[in-house]
Structures are given as C-alpha cells and as structure tokens.
Backbone:
C-alpha cells in the first residue's frame, strides 16, 4: 500500500495525498495525517485536493491580467478606507501586516518604515450584506469577476472536505466543523508581489509580507513557482524554513481562531514572504510572485467553544466562548489604519 504522506525537503512540512479521503478508501488515515501535521507544524501541503490544475492555472492567469492593468483602472474598484471591509483593490503600501498589533500609530509608523511590496484584490461571495464585493466596472476586464467567483466556490467545496477530515481526526462527528462554516463567510485574495532589490528585503528597508499568523479558521494557499514563503520551525523559534512551491499542491495552514477553538492543540504557526534563499547579491532582484490565498472563517455571529475532547477535568479550557464576528472584525481592522 502506497504512503499517503511525504515531506517537503526544504521545510519538512508533510505532503498529504487527499485523494484517499475524497474517494473514501483511507479516510481516517488521511484525517489523522492532516491533524497530526496541524498539531506539529500548523501547516500541511495537500495534493489531489479536488481543484483541477487547469482551474489553478487559470486563476493565476487572471491575477496577471488584473495586475497588469494601469493603476488608475485598478483604482476603479478601490478597497474602502474601513479596515473591516476587505474587498476591492489595495495598491502598494495601503495594507501592512503586523502580528497581533492594534496600535494605529505603530501600524502607520511601520508602514512608512518598511512598506509591504505588494498589491492585492479581495472578493467574497456575492450578496454579502456585511462585506459586499467591489468589482471593476462592466466591460473593463470581462471574465475576471466570473473567474474569481468560480474559484471561490471551488475552494469552498475543498474547505468543507478539509473540515470533515479534521473532525474525523478529532474523533468527533464528521460534520462538526462544517456546521459552523455553512455561510461561506470567506475571502479570496489575489496577490502580486512586484520585483524589488533582494538587498532591500534582507536589510529591512522593504518587506513582502512580514512575520504573522493568520487569524481565521484555515487558509488555503495557491502559490506560483517563484517561492518566497517561509514558515517558522516549531522546534526552533525564530528560525524560518522555505515552503517550496510544489506543483499542483495547496498549502493549508491553521489560523489563530482554529488554534483557540482546539484549546491550543493545533498550532497557528507564524510565517512570512521574503526573497527566495537562492537569490543573493547586491544587484539581485526578487522575482515577481503571484499567490492566491483563500481565507476561511466561521459563520458570522456564531458562539464558538472548545472542540470536544480537547479539554477535560484534568486539561481545562484556556478560553471562554467567543462570538466569531467580534473576534474576526477586530483582527481584520489591524491591517488597515
């Protein structure tokens, strides 16, 4: 019987074949492997996850088309000034990722000192009353809206399967997590990291995305071939290892909300985007990089308590029940000030 788990030689992150879960032949084995990776590393690569390669190639292609538009055209779908409405286009320098920081002065200061060398476009489900989508006017980039929505809903189906696997890993009802994620209150982000001097990144004069953890339930990341994603080694805090792009894979990581939900049995590991380690030299420039993260969160205004089995009389709960919207809105606001 073939192994369902291999390992990325750079980062040591497990690569799990999700096919035997999807076809039902080795569901528990796959579920255990994913949960074990979330507990030990906080990250896992999934292959045979259910998104066709042509659909992944297509959304990367649409990202390149969108970001190639003139700035004045992209700004026809502007991200609102409110940090809690994550939709539309954010030009370079608007967003600044800072880990667990809710001090407006510090965020503005950090943005000026080391701006994030990226731009992004965000969308979600249509008819979202809390965060309505902000699209380009009709006729400017025909097909872009439809491609984003199609990829969004394809990712949602994969998300539900991942949560079913996690539930089996925790030995709870298979629908335990999916019942809290029925509304698809998720965010699709299309990211473009433009080329900058490697020296500026290494010397802290600019950043691509600084060290941070994600704050939702899980993140499903499609990355191109350029590289640059680094994940902290859980056994050596402060040491980062490259999460190598693996063709056809999704990089899945647990967020802070899921860590809290699991009574800290799951890791929400900090990570960043830098210059790939094979790049060096005073005149070296980073490659352009495109990535498509899909951020998953629980239904709005839902009270979340600890996963059964992660706490007991001898292992007390670390956290009180919390309203999902109250938590997530505060974390969203940290990136935009």
Residues:
């Amino acid at each position: 019987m073939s192994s369902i788990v291999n390992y990325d030689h750079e980062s040591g992150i497990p690569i799990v074949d999700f096919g035997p879960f999807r076809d039902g032949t080795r569901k528990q084995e796959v579920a255990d492997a994913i949960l074990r990776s979330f507990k030990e590393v906080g990250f896992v690569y999934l292959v045979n996850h259910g998104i066709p390669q042509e659909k992944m190639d297509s959304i990367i292609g649409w990202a390149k088309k969108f970001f190639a538009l003139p700035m004045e055209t992209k700004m026809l779908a502007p991200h609102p000034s409110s940090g809690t409405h994550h939709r539309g286009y954010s030009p370079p320098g608007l967003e600044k990722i800072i880990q667990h920081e809710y001090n407006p002065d510090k965020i503005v200061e950090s943005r000026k000192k080391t701006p994030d060398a990226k731009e992004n476009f965000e969308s979600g489900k249509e008819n979202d009353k809390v965060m309505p989508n902000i699209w380009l006017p009709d006729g400017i980039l025909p097909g872009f809206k439809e491609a984003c929505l199609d990829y969004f809903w394809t990712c949602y189906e994969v998300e539900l399967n991942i949560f079913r696997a996690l539930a089996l890993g925790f030995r709870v009802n298979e629908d335990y997590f999916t019942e809290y994620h029925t509304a698809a209150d998720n965010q699709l982000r299309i990211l473009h990291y433009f080329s900058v001097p490697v020296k500026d990144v290494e010397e802290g004069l600019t950043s691509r995305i600084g060290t941070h953890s994600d704050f939702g339930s899980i993140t499903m990341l499609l990355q191109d071939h350029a590289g640059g994603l680094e994940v902290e080694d859980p056994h050596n805090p402060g040491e980062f290892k490259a999460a190598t792009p693996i063709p056809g894979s999704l990089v899945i990581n647990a967020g802070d909300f899921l860590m809290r939900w699991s009574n800290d049995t799951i890791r929400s590991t900090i990570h960043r985007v830098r210059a790939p380690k094979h790049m060096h030299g005073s005149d070296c420039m980073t490659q352009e990089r495109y990535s498509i993260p899909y951020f998953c969160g629980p239904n709005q205004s839902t009270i979340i308590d600890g996963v059964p089995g992660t706490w007991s009389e001898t292992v007390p709960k670390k956290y009180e029940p919390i309203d999902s919207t109250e938590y997530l809105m505060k974390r969203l606001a940290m990136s935009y000030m």
Q: What stands out?
A: Residues 5-336 form a domain with the Jelly Rolls fold (CATH 2.60.120.330).
